[in-house]
Amino acid sequence: MDQVKHNNLDLAEIREKLAGMKGQAYWRGLEEIAETEEFQEWLGEEFPNRETLLQLDRREFLKVMGASLALAGVAGCRYLPQEKIVPYIKAPEEVVAGKPLEFASAMPWCGYAKGVLVTSREGRPIKIDGNPTHPSTLGSSDIWMQASILDLYDPDRSKNTMKDGAIAPLEDFLKEARESLTAALPAPGSVGAAGAAPVRILAETITSPTLVAQLSALAKKYPGAQVHHFEPAGPHNALGGAHLAFGRDVDIIYHFDKASVILALDGDFLQVMPGSVRYARDWADRRRVRKSKMEMNRLYAVESTPTLTGANADHRLPLRAGDVDAFTRAVAAGLGVSGMIGSVPAGADADAFLQATVADLKSAGTGALVVPGDNQSPAVHALAHAMNAALGAVGSTVTYIEPAHADLSGQAVAPGDPFASLKALVTDMQAGQVKMLLILGGNPVFTAPADILLPEALSKVPVRAHLGSHEDETSAACNWHIPESHYLEAWGDLRAYDGTATIVQPLIAPLYESHSAIELVAALADKPDTGYNLVRSYWQAAQSVTSTALARTWEKWLNDGLIAGTASQSLTVTANAGAIPAAGANAGATPPVPASGFEAIEVIFRPDPNIRDGRFINNGWLQEIPKAISKLTWDNAVLVSATMAERLHLANNVNVTIKLKGRKLIAPVWITPGHPDNSVTVYYGYGRTKTGQVGSQKGFNGYVIRTSDAPDFASGGEIGEAPGSMRLVSQQMQQTMEGREPVRVRSIKDYGAKPEYPKAEDDEGAGNEESEKSDLFKTPQEYDIWAKEGKAHEYAWGMAIDLNVCIGCNACSMACQAENNIPVVGKEQVANGRHMNWIRVDRYYAGKNLVNPEIVFQPVPCMHCEKAPCEPVCPVAATVHSHEGLNMMIYNRCVGTRYCSNNCPYKVRRFNFYNYANHHEIPVLKLLNNPEVTVRGRGVMEKCTYCVQRINRARIEAKIANNSEGAPIKLVGMKDANGKTVNESTPGVLITACQQACPTKAISFGDIHLDNEVKQWKSEPANYDLLGELNTKPRTSYLAKLRNPNPALEPATANAGSVAAAGSAGSVSEAGTKAE
Amino acid sequence: MALTQEKLIGGRQTYQTLTDKIADIVLFNSKHPLSWYLTLGAAFMLLQGMMMTVTYLLYLGVGIWGINQPVGWGLDILNFVWWIGIGHAGTLISAILLLMRQQWRTSINRFAEAMTLFAVSCAGVYPLLHTGRPWVAYWLMPIGPNVLGMWPQFRSPLVWDVFAVTTYLTVSALFWFTGLIPDLATLRDKAGNKAAKVLFGMLAMGWRGSATHWLRYETAYLILASLSAPLVLSVHTIVSFDFAVSIIPGWHTTIFPPYFVAGAVYAGFAMVLLLAIPVRAMYGLKDLITMRHIDWMAKVTLATGLVVFYGYCTEVFYGWYSGNTFEWFMIMNRMTGPYAPLYWSLILCNGVVPQFFWSKRVRHNIPAVFVVSLIVSIGMWLERFIIIPSSLHRDFLPSSWGIYTPSLWDWGMFLGTIGQFVFLMFLFVRFVPVIAIAEMKDLLHRSQDHHGDHAATPIQATADGPALVD
Fold first, then answer.
1. Cβ-contact A780, A1045 below 8 angstroms
2. Which one of A168, A202, A823, B19 has the lowest number of neighbouring Cβ atoms within 10 Å?
3. pLDDT tens across B39-48, in order?
């Protein structure tokens, strides 16, 4: 059939058409003129719509990318320009094939910037790390920064502007929108628009100065256009607290580098705040104990849901979220905040905790810091401000600045109601006053509190548009959906937690027909322009740069990844303790009597630890990386305490019914030691109904019982039985150390008195018992072939991990995944123990009880044992030792007997049971791969390589820089040629991916003999080998974890923790924690 | 001695009756029982199941099995070790008992040798298919640097395994075939069918029964026996090194080589009993595989079973005596961990049940012997389960502990090899003399000599003969 059609050109007709053409007509072939079906098809294929990009293979992609770079530079290039395409004959400037380039940019987090450095390979961004010059990250990163690269290449991103489910041109939307805007123009003769504004824009937290200026201009031009604000899991309580205490919006900056005693009030400052990456570093810097510096800060944490902050605290007090208020008031009273009376919940330990904390904070004075959590009420925040003021901490450990975010709605933090702006919008929509609604990012239909009936209200708006990266619940409820560009695809700008502005610099042309918010708003305002021009002209004006100087200044801004001097001005504000409402919001209400078979509880709502409010649900990396505390993957759960589980006969995975204010949720439970009793945590963000293939059918929707009056925690809930269960998958099945001591924990006091102490008790020949042992039982650490060979130095690579500052955040694990092309295996495979993380973070519960156990973390990469048990058992020599001490894995040689893995005492080897890295079906994911690292096929063993590709690149760079073979590689802690100490951000320095990502700098890598950081670390008395008694001689070693307990609280809470929160203290059988 | 020998052949036998009894099965002169067809059919079905499993395995990868991190070896290696163990009795009976002049071996050696071959072939399936990339599994062979660019890694016990198992298979096959030659000649001579005559004639390699032939035959047979004898010890010793060489608690044990060899003989004898009992019933060979044989095999089973049980006790003792946290935990985990039911079943199967063989009444009760042999075979399978997955699933770092559950494909593969084994065994029974005719005649000859009776008089059953012959 095709054959026949193909030859069916009617030449006579063609001649006729040609004759009829006017002017100079170009035609591509006879088919064009004949306008045959084939030609039309061909035309379609030649200029593919976005769908077919997925079918591009890497080679074609590079060709295309190269061409577009060459033509247009990185800026504003399009995929397939209509113009002439040239191949890569002359490479664009800067691009050297095989050499990665790094560009500074910023990633949005709750609207705030996290400064990033993006590694690009021949035009493909492949890795995100922190920008060392940026105050928010200092070169470190977190799991979301690392995983955001996967979002860029997510094959489920929306690709086309859609109207009612069909592809439609954006111009049509702009036309519709402008018509609506015209209606929002001031009526002739009147000053403002009459009645309610007919055009609304719903935005999440905005810090982008360009967007703020645009929206303000838009609202000015069209008085009938109004901006609303909604952030489902933002710092609304912090803002409410600031309003309470100061009567105005402020942003709060903590200076953990100056804090010696810290009290965290039910909040996780180590991980989830916009400044957390920086905070973690500052906090850890005060905990880094060395022979020369035997001191560390002390962290008290009062918390409900166990978080990283609580796990890393020296003293942790589990309290129900509702009780934190009273406890805070008691602390405030102790610190002399006027008019405060508070009482601690029953329990002598809580009282002791209170007394000790108050005394310690007082003695620390300006070095004290009280940090309220985002989930606590505005009153707690306001109290924290008052306490910090009373302690003299303001100006020292805490400062207040002009907010980096803009409140365009004027209602973002209406006192007492964080969702006032959204509610006002919904009311107007329901009243039919809104003619057009533009939702700028986010997924409010899914994330709105259950009592705000957004979907119903939306149906009353004639024109409703959604700008979003994925088609989701909100786009389904809108008639227009416009794909939103990823931050690596579009120009923009953002402010960091301290106000510092960064130009968001794209690394790649939009993969699909997507737009950024600023481009869309500009087009709406009838001034369409490229994002590049918009941002550039805004900053030229804002910084008063002359046109001539702009080129250079602009380049510097981009190069540095920030605009110097844009940090917000600090404010002098005084906390007004008198404005803080009296206690009793929770205490006064009589809890309703629960129905029979139900028990009264408090319900705590938290965004999921990994996928947050649901926005990262389609990100396979974030789904599979275990949640820091529970180690769950791919699902959310209802966390319950061990005591409650025992009382209600609950087991992991079993469903429960949770009733709250007439709403009901059925969800599986996960028993969480350290969770307060009579309280459950519901993680929201999962249970999406419309999302990509990774996120669909995962977890349950916690939003269904989260209402706007109690978005963070609510009393008056009930828990009861429910039929069925769900299979939750934890990456780690065993929760305790079983009397072994893989993680050695000591108090700093003991350590200072006897630094050898971190050696395990069964370490043969260690410590002062050494002389008593015969040679037979000595761990033979003495011989060292590298030291004794006496020839020119060869590197002896080694790693040290400082458990004392490791916070367990998984950033190392995620960075490793990005660097080393580690595939995602899915829930079923994780359930079967087949996860692929080359560096995993083990989490152990320790201590004597389940009510408040100690929680410790231990990242475990390959140990690169000098006497590696994996090597002699491989029948085909696929794993061998390099002369530099690397335990190497030769994928091509591996036949997959798995004997090496069996014989690895650390179980750090990972096996490709299936063809996990098979991206044939989703070619766009191939773009993600690091070309320096082999993608492993099925049946092959793999494991941590100490980032051997980075070692070799550093070797080559050193050779080129010094023009000599064997030139020294720059290692952290080394003195360079100029006598300057090399650090992580020195150009050309050799650092592993995990080391680079670690927010607390808990990982050091280098040569174990040369004078560099890793050798210094390894010479600390706290240094120990994991399972050193097996004589594997691991090259990776650990520095023992130290705690700094308050002597006043020893021994009651130093190890065993407190039992205050539990209504019924007492020992719960350990079996309760075992998830098997 | 005389007493012993006369009980080794029951009924009234002449050279002719012996030849007929055995050769008729092969030459189809008697009707094959229906049960033969049924069993063969069932085994064939299982074999087809294995073909499906293998196809799926090659298509998708070893992920279809239940193995994981930390349990890298599951039913694959478990079954390999189990089959290899079963394969031991053949050579032991053939070679070692031959060298020790134990004539009672005669009626069961052919059978046991075949069992060895087929068990080893079943075992051989696993090391090949358990690799992640079976298409390059030949890299384990010492094909040499001229072809592959490098040798295998000789420090790995898996390479020793390859040598040990292939050598064992080769020598066993040669030994088996050598022993068959006189019988093949007998079949050639007896066959009425032309095609069978040609086939058996070719296989008999021109055997004419001359004294020179006999001399060379006996010499070759003895030499092969001497070669095979150390293999009995070496193969399972080397298989045990797969575990003993590693550092995993529960594997890293010096007791493994003798303990594995004893276990192999134990399992092998149980399997010979398990197969001999139905076959002798099916083909009326009760005069040739007598109660005396069964009694003695039961005794060997008991003796080796005691050695194995001693091994279990020693493991527990050293777990405690070593004072090593990991070792002691491993023992406690076996006894109380998730696989504790399997451990205690193992103790029951291999420690308690074989003790019934102390009783002569049990040894002489065919159903009882059959049941005990079955239990022993299961016990030995459990032993490998306890050694392999249960040692791996909880080793040094608690964070890495896991659990292993075999998948349906694991079981499919296991049932498939059982099908393969039974299928081959039944083909063997049909096409090859199950009992060495020539050796039986020799035995008959010797027993007659000892009795000093008239040459033509068939052996009379002794007083307790009929009872023995059941």
1. no
2. A168
3. 899 999 999 9
Identify from A813, A822, A889, A902 which residue to disrupt to test chain B contact, counting B C-beta atoms within 10 A and taking the largest count: A902
The full DSSP string for A623-647 is HHSPPTTT-EES---EEE-HHHHHH
Confidence of residue A58 (pLDDT cuts 50, 70, 90): low
Interchain pair B132, A912: CB under 8 A: yes
State both tokens at A270.
């180590």
Contact assignment for B139 to A876 by CB distance below 8 Å: yes
Q: Are B267 and B232 in contact (CB under 8 A)?
A: no
The CB density around residue B324, as the number of other CB atoms within 10 Å, is 16
What is the spatial distance between Cα B273 and Cα A466, in angstroms, rounded to a whole number? 77
Confirm if A733 and B403 have CB atoms less than 8 A apart: yes
Residue of A nearest to B337 (CA): A1076
Cβ distance B130 to A910 less than 8 Å, yes or no, reads no
Query: Are A542 and A553 within 8 A, CB to CB?
Result: no
Taking the Cβ of residue A693 and every Cβ of chain B, the question of whether any pair is shorter than 8 Å is answered with: no
Q: Which helix (H) or strand (E) holds A1042?
A: strand A1041-1043
Chain A touched by B337 (CB under 8 Å) = no
A734 to B399: CB separation less than 8 angstroms, yes or no: yes
Q: Is the CB of A742 less than 8 angstroms away from the CB of B162?
A: no
Tell if the CB–CB gap between B156 and A902 is shorter than 8 Å.
no
The ipTM estimated for the assembled molecules is: 0.89
Q: How far is A898 from chain B (nearest CA, A)?
A: 6
- State the alpha helices, DSSP H only, in A433-590: 444-447, 454-458, 473-477, 517-524, 531-542, 547-560
Residue located via tokens 């001579």: B189
Greatest C-alpha distance within chain A: 108
- Whole-number Å distance between alpha carbons of B68 and A910: 9
Q: Are A441 and A203 in contact (CB under 8 A)?
A: yes
> Smallest Cβ distance to B398: which of A737, A898, A910?
A737
CB-based contact A475:A489 (threshold 8 Å) = no
Q: pTM of the full predicted structure? A: 0.85
For helices B211-244 and B157-190, give the axis angle rounded to 10 degrees.
Answer: 150
Q: Do A740 and B338 touch (CB under 8 A)?
A: no
Tell me whether B412 touches chain A (CB under 8 Å): no
Cα separations in angstroms, B332 against A330, A520, A1041, B327, B390: 50, 67, 30, 9, 11
| A897 vs B71, B131, B329: nearest CB | B131
Name residues 50-79 of chain B within 8 A of A (Cβ): 60-63, 66-73
Burial pattern B119-158, b for ≥16 Cβ within 10 A else e, equals: bbbbbbbbbebbbbbbebbebbbeeeeeeeeeebbeebbb
Q: Rg of the Cα trace of chain A?
A: 30
Candidates A503, A506, A105, A107; CA nearest to A277 is A107
Burial of A819 by CB count in 10 Å (0-12 exposed, 13-18 middle, 19+ buried)?
buried
Alpha carbon separation from B420 to B65, B162, B270 (Å, rounded): 20, 21, 19
B156: which chain A residues are within 8 Å (Cβ-Cβ)? 872-876, 899
Is the CB of A664 inside 8 Å of chain B's CB atoms? no
Secondary structure of residue B230 in the 3-state scheme: helix
8 A C-beta contact, residue B459 and residue B451: yes
Element (H, E) at B119: helix B106-129
Beta bridge partners of A370: A263
Q: Mutate one of B80, B141, B333, B399 to test the A interface: name it (highest A CB count within 10 A).
A: B399
Convert the pLDDT of each residue in A919-959 to its tens digit. 666 778 888 889 899 999 999 999 999 999 999 999 888 88
| Chain B contact for A527 (CB, 8 A cutoff) | no
